[in-house]
Amino acid sequence: MTLSGRSVLRLSLLGLFGWLLQITAISNVTIFGVPADLIPLLVAFAGFIAGSTTGAVFGFSLGLLVDLPSFQTLGVNSLVFTAVGYGAGRIRELRDPAHGLAPVAVGAAATAIAAVGFALLQFLLGVKAPVSLLLLRDTLMIVLLNTLIALPVYAVMHRALASFLPDDPRRRRRRAYTTGGLSPLSRA
C-alpha cells in the first residue's frame, strides 16, 4: 500500500510527538517501579493500520530517533522496531483481524518482542548488563502497562491515519457479505 505525502507527514509528526512525549513525560512516571514504553506501541500500530512496509520504515525511523540521543549501540532499536512494525503489518495483511481487542494483543506482543529483542541483541553484542529476576519482573510490568494503554494509543493512531489510507477492497467485500449485503447466494 502506498501512502500519500500528507499521510507520510502525519505519520512523521505522530512519531516525533510520541517520541517527545516518551522522553519528557511518560518515562518520568513510574507505576510499580517501571515506566510505560510508548515507542513499541506506536510502531506496532503504524504497521497494524498502514501495512507491513509502512510499519517497517516507521519502526526503523523511530528506532533511529530513539538511538541517536542515547549513548547506546546505534541501530539496535532500529533493527528491533523494524521487525516489530513489519510483523504487526503482516498480521493485518494475512489475518485481517476484525475483533475490537486485537490492538491490545498486538500491543502486548509488540512490547514483549521489543523488550526481549533488545535484550537479546545487547547480549549478542557483548554489552555487560546484570541479568536477574528483577529484569524479568520489569519486562513483564512494562508489557502489562503497555497492554493497559494499548487501546487509547491505537485509537489516536487510527483516528490520525485512517482518513489518509486507501480503502482496502478485501475488507469492504468481506464486510458486505457479513452484513447481509450483496451476496451472490442470496439472489433469487
TrEMBL record:
Keywords: Cell membrane, Cell shape, Membrane, Transmembrane, Transmembrane helix
A cellular component term, taken from the record's GO annotations: plasma membrane
InterPro entries reported in the protein's UniProt record: Cell_shape_determining_MreD
Principal cellular location given in the protein's record: membrane
Membrane topology label: Multi-pass membrane protein
Family statement: Belongs to the MreD family.
Stated name of the protein: Rod shape-determining protein MreD
Organism: Solirubrobacter phytolaccae
